[in-house]
Write a structure and sequence with these properties.
Layout: E1 5-8, H1 12-24, E2 32-35, H2 43-47, E3 51-53, H3 56-61, E4 65-68, H4 72-81, E5 91-94, H5 101-108, E6 114-118, E7 128-134, H6 139-150, E8 153-157, H7 163-190, H8 195-216, H9 220-227, H10 233-243, H11 246-264
Parallel strand pairs: 1-2, 1-4, 2-3, 4-5, 5-6, 7-8
Antiparallel strand pairs: 6-7
Length: 265
């Protein structure tokens, strides 16, 4: 792809997208401009050939694709300042929680295609799930977004009204699984492994479980049945975890995240 891309607000997720685009071969560092108020925090990007600046208007002016990765309260101020740079022919990809397509289009004008995207931090290593939504008239922009993000993991087109749940499940979800891996590694230490060994085993077990689901396309319980045996160790561990509220806690955590996100809309 030859288009130049501006990532506005290069924090954790913006930086992960920038690195993911290059890792996937969708863009070169020279095609990307990343912005942040404190450009000294982008020094490592500059050393790798990315364009860095604190001038959002200049970054937007030089790009065909603009990816917004700022906080919701910053968006309108940035779009006000960069209004003259948002000219016809550009495409806006928004990774901003709680900012609807209608909100953005009202500010940008109806002529610019807008796609909402919700990836997660694993986009940096090509393992994100990115949910996408756009208006019917922006179908070509949606296809381009799917191509871009598809090189950095899986994509799923959803109705915009599901963007808040998608954030709770797909974006916050990474942290939930990381906490589960941490807990498993702590259990591994208690039963005799060194910390680094316990973490490796727990992380690889989690990776294997996820790969089984994605490749087999079955229900988790079907795979669980292959591991559990009568009076066996696995069913004893599972039952103890369920008695302690494992599934209930995870479900409640996802709902709590979705509720919190809903209040930000």
């Amino acid at each position: 792809m030859d288009d130049k891309i501006a990532i506005i607000g290069c924090g954790n997720i913006g930086g992960a997208i920038a690195k993911g685009l290059v890792r996937s071969g969708s863009a070169t560092p020279g095609q990307l401009t990343v912005t942040r108020r404190q450009t000294d925090q982008l020094a490592h990007f500059a050393s790798e050939g990315y364009n860095i600046t604190s001038d959002n208007s200049a970054a937007i002016q030089s790009a065909e694709i603009v990816i917004l990765t700022v906080q919701p309260q910053q968006v309108m101020e940035i779009l006000d300042v960069a209004a003259d740079a948002l000219t016809a022919g550009k495409m806006v990809l928004s990774v901003v929680s709680g900012m609807t397509i209608a909100d953005l289009s009202a500010k940008l004008g109806s002529g610019l295609p807008v796609v909402r995207a919700m990836p997660n931090i694993a986009i940096e290593i090509g393992e994100s799930i990115t949910c996408l939504a756009a208006r019917v008239q922006d179908s070509s922009a949606l296809a381009l977004a799917a191509k871009l993000f598809g090189g950095m993991g899986a994509t799923l087109e959803i109705d915009e009204e599901l963007m808040v749940p998608a954030t709770a499940l797909g974006a916050c979800g990474v942290a939930f699984f990381l906490r589960c891996i941490r807990a498993m590694s702590q259990g591994g230490i208690e039963i005799g492994f060194h910390p680094e060994e316990a973490l490796q085993i727990a992380a690889q077990a989690a990776r294997g479980a996820a790969s089984l689901m994605l490749q087999m396309e079955g229900h988790p319980e079907s795979a669980i049945d292959r591991v559990t045996t009568p009076r066996g160790a696995t069913i004893s561990g599972l039952n103890k975890m369920e008695h302690e509220g494992l599934s209930s806690a995870i479900i409640k955590g996802i709902i709590a995240s979705a509720d919190k996100l809903g209040k930000l809309v």
